[in-house]
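ok so i was messing around last nite and threw this chain in just to see what happens. nothing serious, just curious
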Amino acid sequence: MARFHHLWIVEAEVEIRNPAAEAETRCERIFRALERYAGEDTDPYPAQAASRDDGWAEIIFPVWAPTRWAAVAAGATVLAEACTEAGVDTGVVRLAAGESSEELERYRGRVQAMEEAA
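result:
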């Protein structure tokens, strides 16, 4: 078992089943809930992008963990807590964990190429 933890970047795509009717979107609420986990050594995370209809959110945030699998587990836990705090009813959730944003970008490119080929 690994003894040292290091910073992993978690990228999540979340389907939001109960979009907000009010001015503040569920995505903004998730982002605000995740901000409390941010610190000086995790800047500029969290970051997010959301569709105009608030039906999904892409969220990127850091976690400390000893392995990639532990990072996925920690990311799922943090995201579940943030979604609960934000009052978000989630549908499909896709998580990825990488050692850098570049690694996640390469992964995203491979996934898009596979989806286009299908």
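not much to say yet. The radius of gyration is 15 Å.
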